[in-house]
Amino acid sequence: MVMEALLKIAVLFFFLHLSIPVNSSPSQHLQIINAERRIDLNSHIIKVYLTLKVENSGTSPTSEVHLAFSPAEAGHLAVVKAAATTGKKKKKTYVPLDVKSAEIPDGPNGTKFFAITLLTPLGKGESITLEVLYLLTHSLEPFPEEISQSEPQLVYFHDSAILLSPYHVKEQTTFIKTPSARVESFTVLEPTKQAGSELRYGPYDSQTPYSYSPVIVHFENNNPFAVVEELEREIEISHWGSIQITERYKLVHAGARHKGVFSRVEYQTRSGASGVSSFKSLLAKLPPRVHSVYYRDEIGNISSSHLRTDFLKSELEFEPRYPLFGGWKSTFLIGYGLPLQDFLFESPDGRRYLNFTYGCPLAETVVDKLIIKVVLPEGSKNPSAVIPFQVDQHLETKYSYLDIVGRTVVILEKRNVVPEHNIPFQVYYNFNPIFMLAEPLMLVSVFFLLFAASVAYLHMDISIRKRHGTEQINHVWSLAVIVMLVCNTFLS
Amino acid sequence: MAATDAQSSLRHAFGNVLVFFILILIGVLAFSIRLFSVIKYESVIHEFDPYFNYRVTQFLSKNGIYDFWNWFDDRTWYPLGRVIGGTVYPGLTLTAGTLWWVLNSLNIPLSVETVCVFTAPIFSAFASWATYLLTKEVKGSGAGLTAALFLAMVPSYISRSVAGSYDNEAVAIFALIFTFYLYIKTLNTGSLFYATLNSIAYFYMVCSWGGYTFIINLIPMHALLCVVTGRYSSRLYIAYAPFVILGTLLASLVPVVGFNAVMTSEHFASFLVFILIHVVALVYYIKGILSPKMFKVAVTLVVSGGLAVCFAMIAVLIAMVASSPTMGWSGRSLSLLDPTYASKYIPIIASVSEHQPPTWPSYFMDINVLAFLVPAGIIACFSPLSDASSFVILYIVTSVYFSGVMVRLMLVLAPAACILSGIALSQAFDVFTRSIKFQLPSLSVDSHVDAGGASSESVGPDDTVKTDKTEDAHKERTSKKSRKKEKEPVEKPPSKSQIKKRLSVLPLETSIIAIILLVLLGAFYVVHSVWAAAEAYSAPSIVLTSHSHDGLHVFDDFREAYAWLSHNTEVDDKVASWWDYGYQTTAMANRTVIVDNNTWNNTHIATVGTAMSSPEKAAWEIFHSLDVKYVLVVFGGLVGYPSDDINKFLWMVRIGGGVFPHIKEPDYLRDGQYRIDSMATPTMLNSLMYKLSYYRFVETDGKAFDRVRRTEIGKKHFKLTHFEEVFTTHHWMVRLYKLKPPKNRIRGKIKKTKSKSTPKTVSKRKGLKRNPF
């Protein structure tokens, strides 16, 4: 019960891409008094913090506020979160709100909407401050598309200076934060101001619904554009006390493609000026008490990794075999074991559940396709997964060490995963502990039969000729075999 | 009598159980001593050839056996390709593939790589068991156990069978010993059952390794020896004739051997002896049915007629053989018969370090104290000489010769040395312990039974030998009887008394000291073998380590380069490198290579050698004509890795020059010396290999000091016009260059007008180059 309540909160807190869109038209009585957007372009995951002050100027109370995204943004949207703020500056409290996909019939073509459900309907004349955070991936377009080793990486960022919104916006400002002050160019839409690494568009007054004014910012961004094209995490549960995790990565540098020469001498001697957009090491945050970590690829171990463990977390700092320049790819595999009691629990109704973190352990990476495979022990039944967001689920069967009926594998697939998705999920299943003994018993019986067969063979005379003098030998042999048999039974 | 009989048989049975457990322990030892490479490094395939075998096994496990036979591999020898199914000895891959298939059908999901890595240690355990069986047939189970123990950890064999060394020899040594065992077994028993098994074991050996020619020559030699020394018996006939017929039929089933099994000179000895043994058998048969007088007449008749026919046949045969240029022998076999052959005619064979003759220290390194025990073992084999022991003597003599020709054949010597050392040691122990027993009165009561029990196994074969000598006509029957164990108790009393008679009792102190010394010798051997297994032979050679003051340093450059190639180049790109790296490139990087370690096409290798030794422009043209996109060179100058391409360069020149005469070795040598410093010849400094190795090397330390050659390089600042560096590994050990695309036509035209001489020389070179494509 407690768990369910917790889950509900999680679901409330984290909701997007619901398959059934809510079909409703936005209340035309709402208007946005003040909108402030802060776009953080530091990494290749773009974070947009949107503060909206919404007022109900109509007559009827409304409980939904809509957000609009242009088609380009909608395709790259990874996470949308919303919270209502109450209180003044110091004593601000955030109440997470439910966000779901919505459709508005009269919206412009291709515009995607999300509806924020307010906890209490907004009455006439009332206003509320909403904090919205959304993350965009793959939205920085490298230009030039190909760079040589000594060049920095320049990227385009396309957006609108004016917030796309189904509502009338009274006043708005957009701040764009670039990683450095090196901004090649940007669209000027007065009033526009650049100060250091911050670019300000606005304030603009009184914009009609669905106003849009495209701007382009062309700036330098040398942060690693580490994208995992596909990540397969296999979580294998063994009730003998361990969870074994195998993660298969297909990593790519998604920035401007490397062109021409790669000179090791330049890379080694002029590390500050050469290959600035490349990266050579990555950081994976693993759970605490991790053990037997390995890091390898299809041709063997990769020896460049360091593991730091403490009580709260383990950090694996590792380098791919070679530094990754734009467009270069690498595949590798990280595996580790975890103690079972940290992640597997028994729910009050007798079912067992795995509580594990979704998402990718690598810091600051986008995962285009994440496949999580939870391999349940042999003999477990009725698996069900509880995940706070939308994923594709299906079941498979896997045969591992000496399996006969196979293990049920719960597969959870999701596209466009960012570090914000690293939240716990649960897989419930029924398991009878007697199945733990199936394989040892099987081995015991196989060896038993083997020895019994050899005893029988030694005592039987199946040859055509008569044999003499071998009985004694056979007795000793069968004695030895029986001893082994007993040992085997006891040992296993 | 009955009580003692029961007691002795119980003792016997107890001995058998003990032997069984000792053998299990020896197997475990043989397996685990080879795991140093996994523990110290990682579970990975080693070196060069194992990567090819691994790749073939992967293909086999993925596509199945029929696709494997028909596999045309277009990833190697571009543009020729290679028919893998017809040119590979399939034994190893089929063995590992079957192993993998069995494990997977039992739902034990081991990867192909794991199975491949551990195939060699598993088969080492089998090989030591086979050694036990073989030595037991020769000198009893005491010698067998000692020999098995020796073989389990003989460094020479360890060097080829550590975990990860997934090469043909890994299973072939087992097959070799087992074939010999079955031959001896047949010889001792005269059983057709074992003769058939022998052919099957031989078939497995033919599947596994080209070294099967050793068997098909050694066994005929032994048969011949037996016939010549008057040891012909029907057992010999049963051991030999079915083996040749069945063995040859089975051998020709292996695609890579095929009709070679009857058409090349390596196999002729067996056929000649086959004919001879039939003649001898006929003679013995006729001798049996005719009276001595009649027999003499018959002999004169047959000899006069038969000899003429024989000579005529032999003459025809010799003429046929002589008509082929290499006398029907393959290059490798010829270089065995004539050790100077390879260095004279085939630089490719000579360039392989394992084809060089060994040095004396390598004998000590590889077989250690066995080298001292072997002579004693030979003496032990002569007293008394039996069919089996004469075979072992012949085996050691021939293998000593072959190991003297090629280092890699030390591997064939190792089992022989182990067998003989086992015999020597066990006989020595036998003598010493017995003399101790005789002199300690308290033990003398037991000594009768003990001596009988301990030597009963060792006496077994001797018995048959004695019966052979005495009862010529009935020997088949008696041997058959002696095979059945029922005969043993009957024969024991005479043999026991014989031993007692023979026993030369040594002084007690001498015996004790001698035993202590022998144990020390054995201990030394164990220490040395473990050291060799742990330190000398466990490095996988694709990853290098060095210990410096700040800890262990790992050089993983090869895999870095291969991983880069596999992920960041197009799937169909062709990579040119010296042939050493061909197998690894296809297996690890999955890219098409021009030449690889199979070295079947000398011209193709010479083309690459020529390109490497040519100036940049000419090299670019050769590579371009081969559709090469990347060139891989191995360079050890920065970290001091000695087996790099600059050190192999002279072989490239030699092999290239062997086919394309415009490459002349003296052009690369200054006063006969190979050097890369400022005294180097301009041809050397302008060669592609030099340029690709040292491109921008001077920028690392400012002086361009080569740590392998311990000198500053000759030409430090130069630019590449037709190649561009695309990747260099962390320690510069592998450098990858990309061929620049051909220049635009318009610019080429301008150049032509500018300098008319260049195209001329190029075209001239083209004519000379005799490029096969």
From TrEMBL, chain A:
Alphabetized UniProt keyword annotations: Endoplasmic reticulum, Membrane, Signal, Transmembrane, Transmembrane helix
Pathway(s) of this molecule: Protein modification; protein glycosylation
UniProt signal peptide: 1-24
Membrane topology of this protein: Single-pass type I membrane protein
Keyword Ribosomal protein belongs to the record: no
GO cellular component: oligosaccharyltransferase complex
Subunit note: Component of the oligosaccharyltransferase (OST) complex.
PANTHER family the UniProt entry points to: DOLICHYL-DIPHOSPHOOLIGOSACCHARIDE--PROTEIN GLYCOSYLTRANSFERASE SUBUNIT 1B, RIBOPHORIN I
Role played: Subunit of the oligosaccharyl transferase (OST) complex that catalyzes the initial transfer of a defined glycan (Glc(3)Man(9)GlcNAc(2) in eukaryotes) from the lipid carrier dolichol-pyrophosphate to an asparagine residue within an Asn-X-Ser/Thr consensus motif in nascent polypeptide chains, the first step in protein N-glycosylation. N-glycosylation occurs cotranslationally and the complex associates with the Sec61 complex at the channel-forming translocon complex that mediates protein translocation across the endoplasmic reticulum (ER). All subunits are required for a maximal enzyme activity.
Family statement: Belongs to the OST1 family.
Name of the protein: Dolichyl-diphosphooligosaccharide--protein glycosyltransferase subunit 1
Lineage: Eukaryota, Viridiplantae, Streptophyta, Embryophyta, Tracheophyta
TrEMBL record, chain B:
Start and end residues of each STT3/PglB/AglB core domain: 572-631
Keyword Membrane: yes
Enzyme class: transferase
Membrane topology designation: Multi-pass membrane protein
Location of the Oligosaccharyl transferase STT3 N-terminal domain: 17-420
Chief subcellular location: endoplasmic reticulum
EC number in record: 2.4.99.18
Cofactor(s) the protein needs: Mn(2+); Mg(2+)
Feature: compositional bias, Basic and acidic residues: 463-476, 485-494
Cell compartments where the protein resides: Endoplasmic reticulum membrane
Family from the record: Belongs to the STT3 family.
Protein name, as recorded: dolichyl-diphosphooligosaccharide--protein glycotransferase
Protein source organism: Pisum sativum
Species classification: Eukaryota, Viridiplantae, Streptophyta, Embryophyta, Tracheophyta
